[in-house]
Amino acid sequence: MNEANNALDNLLQPPLVIVQFLQKLGVTFSVRRKTGNLPAAQCVQAVMLEDAVGPLLVLFSQDQLLDLSRLADLTGRKLVTVTAERQQRMLGKHGLDQLPALPPLLNSPCLYDDRLLKAPSVFIESGQSGVLLEISRADLQVLLSKSSAALLGEPLKNIKLNLDRPDDDRSEITHAVQAFTARRIQQRLEETIEIPPLPESAQKIIKLRVDPNATIDDITGVVETDPALAAQVISWAASPYYAAPGKIRSVEDAIVRVLGFDLVINLALGLALGKTLSPPKDQPQQSTPYWHQALYTAAVIEGLTRSMPRAERPEAGLTYLAGLLHNFGYLVLAYVFPPHLSLICRHIEANPHLTHNYIEHHLLGISSDQIGAWLMRSWDMPEELANALRFQNDPEYNEVNAAYPRLVNLAVHLLRNRGIGSGPCSEIPQSLLDSLQINRDKAEAVVSEVLAAEVALRELASLIHPTH
């Protein structure tokens, strides 16, 4: 296997401009494929920041989080990540599609974390997707000879993620609220975080979800009492995504002919919850609009659930709802900590190698997964749904109904690797696929099928939140 990998490595070619540039400097390098098993402490993360003074290239290892507040204290500058368009223009001058950790090439001032020089060698982006360059410590010193050093990053080992201690969620959320309000709050959590009450239509839908005797007439009656919800359900059924023959004339027609009881129940519930909290206007650059990502994830999970052996499948309607609401904690986080949302967004931009939960834990002491699951429980939503949100980033979660968070985890990873959502691309663990008994090729085919209907899905998203 190693011989095969080495043969593939020999076929990789970095951009000619990079090769010629390094040869001119007398820097030697080895070409490596970009894989997920390289030591993070030796992988260099390059981020281009700027302010009114100008650009600044910042380099640190991928086992660290770049803390923008610490950077501001060091430099006296309030730096933010350059826009994607500006970075593309900068790279386009050299015919590159990735930002390389080469300050002389970019002709930019550079600040680097001096712990980079502790490793015997490092891996840097070559400018070509999927191709890395391994450079020795001595040659890295040559590249950084005109750059400045400092302790920039927060080691990820110091950020204690709470992936598997749900009993601590209440105390951690309360602690975070206390820390950001700068006063001791003695009230119960439900009074401290003034979340809007569950909409009346959602309360009725939840009762129908758990009623084994509920009929199509029952759900039709609930939907029709909310004119906006009724219009959306009819529009969903009539959308190109479902390609229904003939004209959809009523809510009952939409349910019977196109959507079905379970899908309408969960769509209606998702739409009702979506009205309680609106997506914030401030979002990380290049992030997928909130409801677009929600619908992509729900649609992928729907297909993944069908791909599982029939005897092992969890409740299809509930897995769809888990996909629709998987990132609902982000809306709650924006509602509870509005002044700090911008700080979270800027750190997500500056740390593209990390998932959101590291950044949220570092800045707030909690994650959106925790707070989203707490809200689901406070609204008496199904426990499977709360667990899907709470444990979606815990690869070791193995309790009852573990399929729900695993499906969310798989769907989010698959979409992220296709450029939907935020966070680093990564290889799907075979153990995750095996636990769900889903073939890797089948999982990829599900995503391809969903993305083929991208335009129609965007139209559906606009029905939930027209401005997103």
UniProtKB/TrEMBL annotation:
One of its GO terms (molecular function) is aminoacyl-tRNA deacylase activity. It holds the Pfam family tRNA_edit. Residues 195-395 form the HDOD domain. InterPro entries: HDOD, RNase_Y/CdgJ, UCP036888_HDGYP-like, YbaK/aa-tRNA-synt-asso_dom_sf, YbaK/aa-tRNA-synth-assoc-dom. This is HD-like signal output (HDOD) domain, no enzymatic activity. It comes from Pseudomonas segetis.
